[in-house]
Amino acid sequence: MSMKRFIKNRMILVVLVSIIGMFFCKDAYMAKSTELVEQNRVLFISSYSYAWETVPEQIEGIQEAFDDAVEIEYKFMDTKNMTSAESEELFYQSMKQYMKEVEPYDGIIVGDDAALLFVKEHREELFAGIPVVFEGINDVAQAEDAVENMQMTGVLENLSYYSTIKLATELYPKATQIVAILDNTVTGEGERIAFYAHAKDFPQLSFSEINAEEYTREELKNKVAELDKDTILLYIMCSLDKEGQAYTSYDGGALISASANIPTFTVVSIGMGSGVLGGEVVSQKQMGYIAADMLKQCFAGKSITDIKIQKDSPRQFTFDENVMKRFKVNVSELPEDSDIVNHEETFLEKNSEILKIAAFVGVVLIILVLILARDNLRRRKMTEAMRRARDNMEQAARFDNLTGLKNRLVFSEDLQSKINAEDKFGIILFDIDGFKQVNDTLGHNNGDVVLKELADRVSRIEDEYFQVYRLAGDEFTALVTARDKDIVFAYAKEIRKCFKKAFLLEKQKYPLSSSIGIAMYPVDGATSKEIIAAADAAMYHVKRNGKNNIEFFQNI
Fold it and tell me: Cα(321)–Cα(329) distance, rounded to whole angstroms?
């Protein structure tokens, strides 16, 4: 009997273990199944190729929103290059076969207008029952139709025409017309409608366009060059010209801005840095992020019909400082919080940390002096601290406070160093013809403006062979590490070019010139005193003979 009970108990134990194992296996299977379900599959269909400038930014935004939690596949229509009916049919056939062979997708994201039109046309055949979110759409009517009749949603690429044109009219209130650069692409047609829709908002302006596809490259350049100061030029699209040559947004912006004699405004972020001034531009990355986030809401259980279309695109006022300087646009004239690209740091910005340290050192010095007065036992430590602080301040004193150029002290050290090393070099001494008259008639503040502007211009010439210094007043000097007189003369001509552009003082242009003297070491002097005197004699020879010229000491 005991053996039977033992066998019976063992069988019961085996059955219990089996039942418990089944539950654990079931839980593991359900967990694995849940994991598979959570890994949603998304197809991104782009109107363009990956090489098109907006596409990588859109994809970056999509990937950032999904954060590796979604499997993403990509298809590119490449409509910038594949423009024929045969190309459209080929893409359709390839997509038809593709959708048959792959596992069903949980969501579709379409980028730009051509992809939206394709998905709308083949919605029932290829994408039935799949949530579709669009982004970068310019054609508002097509987007609204997709939302109303095809259970889609998304974010429009609503370029900021109004804000950009309004800013342009504030900067150029005398303008009488606005001319847009457009083409006949699908996107271009949508933007054409959006552009002309704002004519009613600016009745003082005549709205017109230059269609890039109606002109060859040279004809387009000439057409843009004819626009005068009464015109606001707005770059929107220049994808193709009359000869079929394709342009990226950057290349199109560069072509238009280089040809124009007036600033080129834009509502497209990709062209920034190509020579356009700027405007309120759309963030392609942020649009991709918003579209992906809408699809994530669908995956979380929200109906796509309950996700409202976003008609306002994410935008930012952005401007190019290089172009601002070219057309004398001051940052104070621009909206607050504008993003400035190609910003060139001022002297204070470049040396802000040094100045903060100098201010801190000054405070420390005051504290140290007070402590020394109260406690003689710490005198040595305080003296050492003051010495270190004084060294730091002396280092800061090696630059001219007004212009930011290296000063006379540094010049003397560099000159003597070259002489000690027996280098062959040239010294250029130059000043500003008529500078005294500027000070006497317009005041020293305007004189300072001239000195700072000149310093900014000549400092741009600096390289490993050419170094410039301010000695005093309007007197400057430069060292050129070269034994060849022609090389030194070439740098002197570059200095002279710095005076070619008139100086803007109190909203008026004042033409100035320079008398430039050159001496060569060791031919014109064996010591620092001799070589400086030779350059000085050459410069004053120029002044006595009509000014505004360059002369070598050897020629006087």
Answer: 9
* pLDDT at residue number 187: 78
pLDDT in tens, 92-130: 999 999 999 999 999 999 999 999 999 999 999 999 999
Structure tokens at 186: 């699908």
* Exposure string for 422-460, b = 16+ CB within 10 A, e = fewer: eeebbbbbbbbbbbeebbeebeeebbebbbbbbbbbbee
CA gap 454, 400 in Å, rounded: 13
Q: Which CATH class is domain 161-341?
A: alpha beta
pLDDT value, residue 348: 75
Nearest alpha carbon to residue 165 among 183, 155, 180: 180
Domain ranges of the chain: 41-155, 161-341, 349-383, 408-555
**168: which 2 tokens?**
């342009």
* The token pair that represents 509 in the structure block: 């242009």
Structure tokens at 162: 């109004």
Ordered strands of the 71-76 beta sheet: 71-76, 41-46, 107-111, 132-137, 152-156
- β-partners of residue 339 are 318
Residues 6+ positions from 296 with CB-CB distance below 8 Å: 65, 66, 70
CB 197 within 8 A of CB 228: no
- What is the architecture of the domain spanning 408-555? 2-Layer Sandwich (3.30)
Q: Which positions ≥6 away from 242 have C-beta within 8 Å?
A: 213, 214, 215, 216, 219
What confidence score (pLDDT) does residue 450 get?
97
- Tens digit of each residue's pLDDT (9 = 90 or more) over 55-71: 998 999 999 999 888 99
The CATH code that applies to domain 41-155 is: 3.40.50.2300
3-state SS assignment for residue 511:
coil
pLDDT-flagged residues of the chain (< 70): 1-38, 349, 376-379, 382, 385, 389, 391-392, 394-396
pLDDT at 17: 39
* Same fold for the pair 41-155 and 161-341: yes
Question: Which pairing describes strands 264-266 and 508-510: parallel, antiparallel, or unpaired?
Answer: unpaired
What is the bridge-based pairing of β-strands 177-182 and 152-156?
unpaired
Q: How far is CA 423 from CA 122, 417, 466, in A?
A: 77, 9, 14
